Fold this sequence. Notes:
The protein is an alpha+beta fold. Helices cover 26% and strands 34% of the residues. It has a single domain, classed as Alpha-Beta Complex (Cyclic Phosphodiesterase, Chain: A), CATH 3.90.1140.10.
Amino acid sequence: MARIAIDVVLLPSDEMTDYAVEVNRELLKTFDNKIILDKENCLPHISLAMGCIDEKDIPDIEEILQDIAKKYSFRELRVVDIRAETIPTGKKVSGFKIEKTKELQLLHEEVMQRLAPYLTYDVIIDMVFSPPEVEEATLFWIRNYPEKSSFENFSPHITIGFGETDKVEVPIKFAASKLALCHLGNYCTCRKVLVSTELGS
């Protein structure tokens, strides 16, 4: 069985997914086409935990995620800002910055803690979904996730693409519908949903 690079994510509602795809289309008119969001092969998402897993552990992880999902409901999340970050390649990537509620923080921490026995961070390019071709910069985020992006450094967001935009008005309220395990692709995109489970009501 192979080891693969994964992201445990919250998937936003259809309306929010459509909006993220629409903003991404605007960015693509001017900037790099390395992140092309859509509803099938490159899903807008909120990352909760990244790393590498053994494919044979997917059924165990699915059970854990189903158990976690029952406890949480996200009927109203808020995009509070548009954030453009300079990534290791020197390019800028924009995202919807999401208000970090206590519940989101708790969900992130529970996912990290309960999946800790399964996650490693010794990622290589072969573990990442392709095509499109995977660039080295992608590995930086996965390797450094525990120290740079987890627990007190958890920063919920939805990546919307390369470049910057001033055409988005905040705040935006939206709901999240599912907790999912995805195979990561280039630039930590969600290329393939391996497991998904509905959140509690």
